[in-house]
Amino acid sequence: MRAPSKEIHALHSATAPPPSSALFSALQSLREDIHAEDTLIASRVTWYVTSQAFLLTAYATSWNAGFAWRTFFHDVLPLAAMVLSVLIFASIYAASWAQQVYIREQTMLVRQIRSGFELSASASLALASYERTMIANRKSASGHVIGGRIHALVRVTPLVLPIGFALLWLYAYRFAPTLAG
Question: For the chain, what is the largest distance between any 2 Cα atoms, rounded to a whole number of angstroms?
Fold first, then answer.
């Protein structure tokens, strides 16, 4: 576990009376959890795209004349790839959902700290700095809050890729064998 950020330490040491360090540890933990879900999503997408490349290569190779295992590669492989697509979609959706939960918890905890404790000027400045770096509060150059929209758009590709590959494999399973014969 990483050491809490300088802002968290400044909040803790500059408040009067000092709020529970557990609150600030919770803020740091939520930020780390959000980052961990990002890492999981990126790893899953990388693994998934790599596996699809291997499966598509095997499938394409199976169309060569004289290939011995046509039934396996034209029937079983597309079905397995579709199941894999469903599973990876579910895991990416779950990680995205968990991340949304952490973002909501982070926002609620910051509100609780703001409303439940009298913060010194430096602690208030540190909390404001922390708030600006939260996904939900990111702003455009013109000052409009865009963090939620950006976060949603970033999730499009990881969620659409498995659907696209599943449709490709469905096509391969349903139509490609009849096209060859």
Answer: 80
